[in-house]
Amino acid sequence: MFSSPTDAYTATDLASVIPEVWTPIVNEPKFEDLTILNFVTDLSDYIDDGGDTCHVPDIYTNEFTVQTQSTQGDAVVDESVASIDTTLSVNTHKYIAWIIGDKDIRQLATKYKLNEKYATEARKLLTRAIEDSLFALWSSVSTNVVGDTATVLSDLEIRESINKLDSDNYEIDETAFFVHPTVYWNQIAGIAKYYDNSMNGKPSIIRTGAFGEVSAKNYKGTLYSVDLYTSSRVVSGLQTYRNLLLHKSAFGVAIQNDGGNFARVQAQYKLENLGLLTVVDTIYGVAVLREPAAVLLNANMTATTA
Q1: Mean pLDDT, residues 112-134 taken together
Q2: H/E element holding 95?
Q3: Is 25 within the bounds of a domain?
């Protein structure tokens, strides 16, 4: 019979010869795909050469009146219809900055391109900030509002939202839904007519007959031929998600960075700090350009469709 060891080696005893391994893998933050920023009216090209305000004249709010010529030869009744000056101000400058000292730069493992990874993260954070500003424009939408703060987003409310734009003669093929993932997965995806195979085909949220077969992470298919995107940047508050149905002319954005990029990256060695300073920044503005071209779809944050 073997006797039990009385003094077997432990990991502590062997600590000086057990190596630690640094993998080349770096866990980086996850970012949602761009949605609303790629959809709305982009005025960036108009401010490439400077300026802080974009003017978009509005001649649709006040319309001419159709007159009837009851008596031939009578003088015509002329009219002057006031136009409205819609403006977008480029007034937001956001940045992220960091310094890594000389000693630390020299001692960092060369396998980790840390400054490059930080710059990528900063660009994505600033792009997210622009999307946040666009989604925040929901608070200016008042003409077309459906849904409520206490219940799920229903099929009827979805159809009502499309009807509001269709009845106002907006091109439906130039519109898109932007909903929070919770609203999509816990509410919309539970509506039987959207997943029942007997109703598959157009119109349907199921593009190919099965959930999941979509062309982009945030693109979920179509509802009544209207593209639907999910975004975690959809505003939430007071137990309500502020989802949107937009015609592309509803909101505008202007980004004033070199080369038309969403964000600019600059790095400079600072002798006074004995380190490398990196600054990532963006200059932009957002505005509601055509408020009746947007529909606000309210949905409760916790309600679910069975």
Answers
A1: 94
A2: strand 92-101
A3: no
**Does the pLDDT at position 210 exceed 70?**
no
Instruction: Inform me whether the pLDDT recorded for 6 exceeds 50.
Output: yes
Q: How far apart are CA 166 and CA 283, in angstroms?
A: 35
- Predicted local distance difference test score (pLDDT) of residue 169: 96
Tell whether 143 is covered by a domain.
yes
pLDDT tens, 36-49? 999 999 999 999 88
Q: Assign 22 a pLDDT band (cuts: 50, 70, 90).
A: confident
**DSSP 3-state of 175:** strand
Neighbours of 114 (CB within 10 A): 14
CATH number, residue 257: 3.90.1690
Phi-psi category of residue 302: left, alpha or beta, with phi > 0 → left and psi -120 to 50 → alpha = alpha
Question: DSSP for 269-288?
Answer: EETTTTEEEEEEEEEEEEEE
Amino acid code (one letter) for 215: S
Q: Beta strand pairing status for 41-42 and 219-223? A: unpaired
Report the domain count for the chain: 1
**pLDDT higher than 90, residue 208:** no
